[in-house]
Amino acid sequence: MGSTLEADFTKIRKWRLPRFWEALLTSPTGLSGTLILVLLIGVAIFAPQIVPYNPDQLAMRSRLSPPSFQVARPGEPPHFFGTDSLGRDLFSRVIFGARISLLLGLTASFIGGVVGVTLGMLAGYYGGWVDSIISWMINVQLAFPFTLLAIFIIAIFGGGLDKLIVVLAWATWVNYARIMRGQVIQIKNNDYIQAAYTMGARPWRVMFLHILPNAISPLTVVTTFTFASVILQESALSFLGLGVDIRIPTWGSILSDGRNYLQNAWWIATLPGIALLITALGANLFGDWLRDYLDPRLRVQ
């Protein structure tokens, strides 16, 4: 019996992986989103090898230089994205800013996902007063403005990358909790769950080995959209001066610096804004395709 089940699972794995890649490669939406995300991750990883300048290098003689592919001075690379108010190379700062944005997006989505999935599973599985308390927490979180929450936490504990991750994770766990709670309520009364109880399975085993794997599909889709949302929220906080240290280049802080030069140096705010747009677009395109792929009602068998 065990060998038969193992053989069946092996067949499923061999069938699903080629089908996943085949569906991805034949979908313009999914392929476009994937290529954008892979490109951004590659740029963030190899940023020190890509950038032509130190992102913190000051050059007051070159301040507010427009984007150009021509060499400004002999022996120096061109400023592809121009320079900011302190003469720093904007292309280098945007490339290094991708590191912070992707790091925050992945970390905050992961932490918020772990907290939200755990609470949502407990609420849907046990119901009763556990569900009431967690649902009350969800409603309070939804009623509390995110920006006000961020200002409150940062004012008490101070700024920094770790504080910003906590704030962004706090803002995202609700999405996971609501989805997970609904999935658990639908799944926990199925026949195979009752069969697991009959065989003596403990509650934690039922939750993590039987319910959670069947709720992975919608959670995966939520993660892609949450990732894009976190990046935009981080940029909004950095724009307001509530993000990471101002000495660290982020897309939001570059935007904040460029708002004072919109008339005579449009590139300072425009180019990191385009980077934000492309990142959010890539995550949303991939998430939209993944939702269609994982939803059996939308797939053509």
Structure commentary:
By secondary structure, the protein is mainly alpha-helical. The chain has one domain (28-59, 76-294): Orthogonal Bundle (MetI-like fold). Helix content is 71%, strand content 0%. The chain has twelve helices and no strands. The chain starts with a helix and ends in a 7-residue tail after the last helix.
Query: How would you state the average pLDDT, rounded?
Result: 81
Our count of helices gives: 12
Helix content: over 70%
Rg over alpha carbons: 23 Å
CATH class: Mainly Alpha
Residue runs with pLDDT of under 50 for 5 or more positions: 1-15
Question: In a few lines, what is going on in this structure?
Answer:
This protein has 301 residues and is an all-alpha fold. The protein contains 12 helices and no strands.
Topology:
Layout: H1 2-25, H2 28-45, H3 47-50, H4 90-126, H5 128-143, H6 146-157, H7 161-187, H8 191-198, H9 203-211, H10 216-239, H11 251-258, H12 267-294
What brief labels describe this structure?
301 residues, mainly alpha, MetI-like fold, 12 helices
